[in-house]
């Protein structure tokens, strides 16, 4: 989830980018307890009334951060095998959500508190899984796996454990762990 | 995670039980925004000063709720096969964390906001996974799976996707989904 790459140009798009960048920076600097519309406005250089009018509150700011991320141009990897593609996806999760100072991780934690932000997080991840389904569909087309597999289940089966580690178990899975989860999902246990 | 079953008897144990039950009830009734030490004290019938002295704040109350749950007598299922045991564990996750009005789910969401509560959640789940490791160890002893498997990885691989669904994707996996995750982890893809 890289910073929003909405259509460039236009004052509105620029303001949105500045404000959402400030959300991430304020969250990183002050944590959720210190995140407020006023601080975001001050840091972004956008007028406080504009921020209030357009985003309403912290929940609205967090929600729009996810919505902006969901409108990027990200595409899933294509390395020629299901295992390699799932491993690449898993590495992306570790890269973006893994580091303790990860802004995505902070945003996911913060979203829990605001219904609108939580729904935007759901939409963001749902969109990622929909875009990633092609990874499984290509594997089916190559005859690597049967046509009965459910792409989303394969993806959530391989990546869900990493989110569970990072967000609920509080430990940091390594790349070897990520590879192990992919291996289990694709090939089962030895 | 059923309500604390700490050693019975003793006023201290009784007070703890009353207070932690009130935490769950207040959270269910008012949500995290409406959860406060005063409300918990009033509902539990325990003196406010006692609650403040012993638990400090909402984070302390939430943390102790997880710690109490971790000191119960829960043991994992033993149905004679790895798949059956993992499916039974998955059904427990669905039963306790699945329902939208689940108190465990509310507690997990709330814990995200308080470092002490978050650490207690990590301890609670870690304890559950340690107790559940025997499910995999028995399968190794029966020769069902190779001795090289890492019990915790198998458990997190099978159950992690359910927590990811419930807490991050906002959808409700069915028992069929849970069975599918277990099947993938144990037997791989068709």
Automatic annotation (TrEMBL), chains A, B:
Query: Mind telling me which PROSITE patterns this protein's record contains?
Result: HTH_TETR_2
Gene3D superfamilies given in the database record = Homeodomain-like (1.10.10.60), Tetracycline Repressor, domain 2 (1.10.357.10)
Q: Which residues bind DNA?
A: 36-55
InterPro entries annotated for this entry?
A: Homeodomain-like_sf, HTH-type_TetR-like_transc_reg, HTH_TetR, Tet_transcr_reg_TetR-rel_C_sf, TetR_C
Keyword annotations of the record: DNA-binding, Transcription, Transcription regulation
User: Where are the coiled-coil regions?
Assistant: none
Ranges for domain HTH tetR-type come to: 13-73
Q: What Pfam families does the record tag this protein with?
A: TetR_C_11, TetR_N
Q: Which PANTHER family match?
A: HTH-TYPE TRANSCRIPTIONAL REGULATOR RUTR, TETR-FAMILY TRANSCRIPTIONAL REGULATOR
Would you tell me the protein name for this molecule? TetR-like C-terminal domain-containing protein
Source organism phylogeny: Bacteria, Bacillati, Actinomycetota, Actinomycetes, Pseudonocardiales
């Amino acid at each position: 989830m890289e910073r929003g790459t909405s259509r460039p140009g236009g004052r509105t798009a620029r303001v949105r980018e500045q404000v959402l960048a400030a959300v991430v920076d304020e969250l990183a600097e002050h944590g959720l307890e210190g995140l407020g519309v006023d601080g975001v406005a001050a840091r972004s250089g956008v007028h406080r009334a504009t921020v209030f009018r357009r985003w309403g509150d912290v929940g609205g700011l967090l929600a729009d951060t996810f919505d902006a991320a969901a409108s990027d141009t990200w595409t899933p990897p294509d390395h020629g095998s299901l295992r390699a593609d799932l491993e690449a996806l898993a590495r992306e999760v570790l890269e973006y959500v893994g580091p303790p100072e990860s802004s995505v991780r902070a945003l996911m934690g913060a979203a829990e508190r605001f219904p609108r932000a939580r729904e935007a997080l759901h939409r963001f991840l749902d969109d990622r899984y929909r875009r990633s389904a092609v990874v499984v569909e290509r594997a089916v087309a190559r005859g690597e796996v049967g046509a009965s597999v459910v792409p989303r289940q394969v993806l959530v089966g391989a990546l869900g454990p990493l989110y569970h580690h990072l967000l609920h178990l509080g430990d940091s899975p390594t790349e070897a762990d990520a590879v192990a989860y992919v291996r289990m999902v694709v090939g089962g246990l030895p």
